[in-house]
Design brief:
604 residues; 15 helices; binds zinc ion; 5-stranded mixed sheet; single chain; alpha+beta; Jelly Rolls; 4 domains
Length: 604
């Protein structure tokens, strides 16, 4: 799959050669042309666009496509003549493309393989002959003070201190495993950072499989730009150095958990979401990530798990996880990736906190509704007042009845903005063929009250209001079913009817669905336990019991909203073993309530 260059504010031209002012001004001219849509058609194609087109039309192989991207970042003068003068667009972080190139190396052959291998190798020692060991001894920085790659000694010293700082924070304070030893790569026992004129912020380049890891873990080195000055950088100078060091060092650590091409489901979204989040953890005062937030909030309905130009904005999701759960929840996702695919690893980390992906995505949709003018920095994102509003798919006006029809594929959320000029009480009634595949949330913006929200599963009805005249709702509908592979798109339709409500819903509490039935753990992965609560509950304890009442698991679920809720059970008992075929019981209890037992069957 071609990686798309971000076109929303971060694609631009970096200096081609600082020594050559003519070329530099030509670059700026192209940048200005790019900014003007009316003359965009006249503009020369960017290198990324040209390579993408030539690859798709079969003029160049995937090997060359990847190799030329790598060569462009470090040695643009070595590109074939046809590409040499194409302006180099600015990728956010080229780690993922480099990783794809590394994975591609085995299947490449002949001269193309040699070219790709050379492009993936470490920068030439003769180009960066000087070395500085970081004060704490974790890193060796390779640099030069001559020519176009030159970096000032102050810059190199700051880089050394910064890498030590992010190392201490992530490894010693936050408890991640140190990156794999690079086996003496670069001729030093330390981890290596190369500082050179690089047409991107930085890259963590995966180098070799950690012995005994079967290609699941990789050593790496880091390349960063030599000054972070130029029109390409949204954030410049030392600020850019800081967030780039945080971002790329986390990639280096991630390579020690799971090299992304080694999962069968695409795991790149976890790489970028985590690295962007860590920029904020390490350097809260530098807000380079706002560019990604904007892209995401403009296009919030891409499948969560499929890598695209909005993936970087999923750093927001990690910011939510840290605040709703704990910083360690994100580390548990990475630990899970050691031996699990991305979705089970992610789900297991949430399950540790009594939650699962579906409910987590419903909360994420709510948080995305409280930005800009609706920001609540205490309850939701701490910097939500700096974010733009979410671009909702459709705006509609509710008078007496409103029917919303749409569709969504796996892990997609569709957002609607509904104006309620008259106010009143609304009833939202979903009509869903497979209710277990859905969750929806309603964020309520009432001019006379503080903002609020509700989350509901499946076909559960929701009563909203009474609303003051002039209220607005954000209805977010999430398909929570799991894709069978990364790019599977199985769009399912939904219908939601909004009507004026005169009655409260009958609150039949307790478990209302256990699906699928029977539950076959090897086939289904999870059984959904759906239940209704008449009121919000601080803590509900869920038990799975054998038919004769022996306790197999006990899970505390926290902070549950009224209405329908859902828990995913993976078929394992407290010892982590899949339970044998048989009849089982599910039971729910809170401090002051106990709901009826439900029977279900497990088959192997
Ligand atoms: Zn990255």
């Amino acid at each position: 799959m071609a990686l798309r260059v971000c076109r929303f504010g971060c694609a631009s031209v970096k200096k081609i050669n600082r020594e050559d002012s003519l070329k530099k001004h030509f670059g700026i001219l192209i940048f200005i042309l790019w900014l003007a849509p009316s003359v965009r058609a006249l503009e020369q194609k960017s290198l990324s666009e040209k390579l993408g087109e030539d690859y798709l039309s079969g003029q160049i192989s995937r090997t060359l496509y990847l190799a030329y991207h790598l060569i462009a970042a470090e040695n643009p003068e070595k590109l074939p003549a046809a590409y040499r003068n194409c302006p180099i667009t600015h990728d956010i972080c080229s780690t993922l493309r480099g990783g794809e190139a590394r994975a591609h190396l085995d299947s490449a052959s002949g001269a193309e393989k040699s070219l790709l291998a050379a492009a993936l190798s470490r920068p030439d020692v003769s180009r960066l002959p000087l070395r500085l060991i970081s004060p704490k001894g974790n890193f060796c920085l390779h640099f030069t003070t001559a020519g176009s790659d030159s970096a000032t000694e102050a810059f190199v010293a700051e880089a050394a201190r910064t890498f030590d700082y992010v190392y201490d924070l992530l490894i010693h304070e936050m408890g991640y495993h140190p990156p794999p030893d690079d086996l003496g790569g670069g001729g030093t026992p330390q981890l290596d950072v190369y500082i050179m004129q690089f047409s991107l912020y930085g890259e963590t380049r995966f180098e070799q499989s950690v012995p005994g890891s079967n290609g699941q873990r990789y050593t790496s080195f880091i390349i960063i730009d030599n000054d972070f000055f130029g029109s390409a950088f949204k954030t410049q100078g030392v600020d850019a150095l800081h967030v780039t060091a945080a971002h790329e060092f986390f990639h280096m650590v991630q390579g020690g958990y799971r090299y992304f091409p080694s999962t069968s489901m695409d795991s790149r979204f976890l790489f970028e979401a985590s690295s962007v989040w860590f920029e904020e953890v390490a350097f809260d005062e530098v807000n380079d990530y706002l560019q990604y937030v904007q892209t995401f909030l403009n296009y919030p309905s891409n499948p969560f798990h499929v890598f695209s130009n909005t993936t970087y904005g999923l750093g927001l999701y990690m910011i939510m996880l840290e605040k709703r759960h704990h910083r360690n929840t994100i580390r548990r996702i990475w630990q899970g990736l050691y031996d699990q695919e991305p979705l089970p690893a992610w789900n297991a980390a949430l399950a540790h906190d009594g939650e699962q992906i579906g409910l987590s995505l419903a909360h994420f949709a709510v948080w995305n509704g409280f930005t800009a003018g609706h920001a609540d920095t205490v309850k939701f994102y701490p910097e939500a007042d700096l974010y733009p509003p979410l671009t909702t798919k459709e705006k509609a006006v509710f008078m007496s009845t409103l029917v919303i029809e749409g569709n969504a594929s796996e892990l997609v959320t569709q957002y609607y903005c509904i104006e309620v000029p008259m106010g009143g009480v609304l009833q939202i009634t979903p009509s869903l063929k497979r209710p277990a595949d859905w969750m929806y949330s309603v964020a309520v913006y009432d001019p006379a009250k503080s903002d609020s929200y509700k989350i509901t599963a499946g076909n559960g009805r929701q009563i909203v209001g009474p609303l003051s005249p002039g209220s607005e709702l954000q209805l977010a509908i999430t398909n929570i079913s799991w894709p069978t592979f990364s790019y599977a798109r199985n769009a399912q339709s939904f219908t939601f009817t909004l009507s004026a409500a005169f009655e409260q819903p009958s609150a039949e509490e307790g478990i209302y669905a256990l699906s699928p039935a029977p539950f076959v753990p090897a086939r289904d992965q999870f059984m959904q336990i759906q239940f209704i609560l008449a009121s919000a509950e601080e803590t509900v304890t869920l038990y799975i019991l054998s038919e004769n009442g022996r306790k197999l698991i006990e899970r505390e679920l926290h902070g549950l909203p009224p209405g329908a809720n859902c828990y995913f059970w993976d078929g394992r008992d407290a010892n982590g073993l899949i339970v044998p075929s048989g009849i089982y019981l599910c039971h729910l209890r809170s401090d002051n309530k106990s709901w009826p037992l439900r029977k279900f069957a497990v088959m192997q």
